[in-house]
Amino acid sequence: MSHLAEIILSAAQSLPEGGLLSAKEFLHVGSRAAVDQTFTRLTREGKLMRVGRGVYAAPVASRFGPRPPSTESVVQAITAVNGEVIVPNGATEANVLGLTTQVPTREVFLTSGRSRKLQLGNRMVELKHGNRWQLVLGRRPAGMAIRALSWLGPEQATTALKVLQTKLPEAEWIAMRTARAVLPSWMARAVSEASENA
Description:
It comes from Limnobacter thiooxidans. InterPro entries: DUF6088. This protein has helices at residues 3-14, 32-44, 71-82, 90-96, 132-135, 141-152, 154-167, 170-178, 185-197, and strands at residues 49-52, 55-57, 86-88, 107-111, 116-120, 123-129. The chain is an alpha+beta fold. The chain folds into 2 domains: 3-57, Arc Repressor Mutant, subunit A, CATH 1.10.10; 84-106 and 131-197, no CATH class. It has a 4-stranded mixed beta sheet. Helix 6 packs antiparallel against helix 7, helix 6 packs across helix 8 (170-178) and helix 7 (154-167) packs across helix 9. The chain is elongated. The N and C termini lie far apart (66 Å).
């Protein structure tokens, strides 16, 4: 194994699960072409996984053999490296909050960054650029509720908000009311009406 490959593998193995590597991090060790070729070779040998364009991660050793890193660990790594806000989409949030029994078949996240796809073994994870109002309260329950309402739409908002009133603590209701200025009109109105009827 080349010295460059050893350096890249050592860096990959020092990262927590889902930690990401890119060729730019190793340009002080070799030329861009050499670094790219080494990443390609290590991927072909199964020592690294290509997660996205120019982004790699180490497979995780398990008793059943190597597996891809978890989606959540990769999302956390992207958040840490790029400073993006990344949250589950409305369909996932609606399911988690018990507003639907539908289980999403695809892993889709909303991001403040650019839209792209990640390949984690045989799993495809989609990052879609989200609107500011969809990301405004991040991963807290009020943010989850806003994304769930967005997915459910205006027709189901009133019913969903009645269910959410039994699930969300008062602090989350206050956060949702505070965020009304950035929400779509129909959602801001629904949140206001639900608050008055509480």
